[in-house]
User: Fold this.
Amino acid sequence: MPVRRANAEWKGDLTSGTGTLSTESGAVQGRYSFSSRFEEGEGTNPEELIGAAHAGCFSMALAAGLSRSGHTPDSVETEASVHLTKGDAGFSITRIDLNTVVHVEGIDDATFQEHAEAAKKGCPVSGALSAIEIRLEARLA
Assistant:
């Protein structure tokens, strides 16, 4: 199996410094800063990239499970909201909310919910993030 790589470079101190993030494929490149991470400034941040990875992984896992059961989806749209909070020990990711809407024919909601929960548990990114709470809201379109 391939090993995936990403790079980050930070210049300067924490609050006034700047950085760049990139993936080896070149598909993702972005600037980040204290403001883009802990406030509402322009640029990307590690939490946003975690959210994108989680949403992508979960969507593929759900599509795979549905397809194996004979219900190939037309689309799986997932948003991941990564909650970064500040506590006494500093900042931490405390929760990820996955909100997915799936266009698929011929499946009842109870069976669909079973597939969605299985995808949440079986997605490799969910496994890597299992130290935090992952909430799922899954809906049929």
Q: What stands out?
A: The first helix runs from residue 34 to 38. The mean pLDDT is 96. The first strand starts at residue 6 and ends at 11. The beta strands are 6-11, 18-23, 29-33, 75-87, 90-103, 133-140.
